[in-house]
Amino acid sequence: MASEPIVTGDVFDEPPRSSIDETPISPTKERKNSLEEQLKHRPERSELIDKNILPHSTAAPSLQERQRELEKHMRADSLNEKISHRPSPEKLMKEGVLHEDPRSPDEKYAEAIEEEYAKREGGA
Predict the structure, then answer these.
(1) Alpha helix (H) ranges present in the chain?
(2) Does residue 8 sit in helix, strand or coil?
(3) Which of 14, 24, 44, 48 could share a disulfide with 54, CB 3.0–4.6 Å?
(4) Can you give the C-alpha Rg of the chain in angstroms?
């Protein structure tokens, strides 16, 4: 049914026309453009690896934590192995690598105390 003019006296009144608001509820296009701009400036994976943001591993993310734990334990084992094979202080003194300190333990202690007091008072 077509809308007919309403007659009120001599004047023809048009029925009110509804205006359509075509603005989007959410600015999705602007968000999409913003996201695209940000993605253009996204750092490369290699850069993130260099900065230690991403792990160097190519393993699946579910395995990376286990891989880190394994690497940590392997480093600890390696250090313990090296420590167990290091020479004793006596052997190093015989070889001339270490030199025996001529001060007695009491003299070393007294000097350490003096240095500590000097640090606290703003001296040395």
Answers:
(1) 28-40, 45-50, 61-84, 89-94, 105-120
(2) strand
(3) 48
(4) 40
CB-based contact 23:30 (threshold 8 Å): no
Instruction: Quick: pLDDT tens for 92-121.
Output: 878 888 787 666 788 888 888 998 988 888
Residue 118: the pLDDT is: 86
Find how far residue 111's CA is from the centre of its chain: 43
Residue 103: which residues within 8 A CB-CB, separation 6 or more? 111
Distance between CA atoms of residues 65 and 71, nearest Å: 10
- DSSP helix/strand/coil, 61: helix
Residues 6 or more apart whose CB falls under 8 angstroms from that of 7 comprise 13
pTM, full prediction: 0.40
Residue segments in the chain with a per-residue pLDDT below the cut of 50: none
Q: Would you state the structure tokens that stand for residue 68, as one six-digit string?
A: 């880190």
Q: What is the largest CA-CA distance in the chain?
A: 126
Contact predicate 15/3, CB 8 Å = yes
- Tokens 């009110």, located at residue: 16
